[in-house]
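Lab notes, practical 5.
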Amino acid sequence: MTRMPFVSALVFFLSAVPTWPCGFHNYVPQPTMVEHMLSSSSIALARPSAASAFNFEVVEVLRGPLPDERIPFLVDTATRLKLKTHSGSVLFTYDDVTQSWQRLALIDDEMRPLVDEILTHLPEWRLGGDAHRAQMFAQLLDHPKPEIRHLALRELDRLDYSILRGLLLFMDTQSVLTEVNDPWQRTLAPIRVLLLGLSRDQGVAQALVQGIDNNRISSGPLLGAYATALIELQGVDAVQMIATHYLVNADHSGAARELLIEALAIHSSYGAPEVVAAIEQALADAIANNPQLAIPVARQFMARYDWSQHHAISQALVPLTSVGTDEDRAMVEHYVLVSAGEGGVIRDH
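Output from the prediction step:
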């Protein structure tokens, strides 16, 4: 028996279903200040030019050579007024490949020590050092300066969930809960929701349940975050509630149910044994009730190289012959083959 066609097809399916920061396939975090600094060839501080208050002039080079190209950005009114009364500056990076400047942040006396610390760690962070970098910013979640908290959240937002749940977190859950609903900070709502689940504060459980209910129709990234957070906080009870009230409910869209399955897949990889067992039972029941759910289950678990759903998905092969696309059916068939040990590795808890 030749395995080459099978292996090639498997590689195709796995490459088509990537994993994502914080787990959610419909959400891509924005590049952080640190990422821009890591990828730059020069880092500099600038202030309004003495010759023209509307143009920036480099006043200090923090790393790399001073580029010949001038900073093209104009000094906006808000920045000009702030720098007129304060001794701060604006942080810029320069990429010598694209020959472009990137404006990053307004740096005042509170931000400067953090920038200096980041600069000292850039060499090691280029080689990895994700655990140190993550914990450093986790300790800033309760910083009194909003801009520094914002920076810390963006750094945590880029992490895989396995790293996130291993951090020692410093935060006030009630403040985080309030900020989740801030319309001006919607892009940071998913990571704040995940942090609520990791807080171990049972007092936020009802807010997480309400968050799932409020977002079940929109199918945005918050639905997956709320489900992941609730399972983190309440374990088996949360798995059973999500499965009973949402997963098997045909009134909910396929996109919404896939986000819930994605949350279950995340915890299948990292959860306690009793949570993993509850997830396997919940998905087996859901697929038995609706074989089409085998498609998103296979997709999400395959993305995490988690082959634990073999039995449940294999039971759906016959019913799926008349539904779904050819690609969907092929993906489910390959999941079953790999999870049976045909060229794959069964997940080891």
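Observations recorded by the TA: Residues 1-23, 342-346 have pLDDT under 50 and may be disordered. Strands lie at 42-48, 56-63, 89-95, 100-107.
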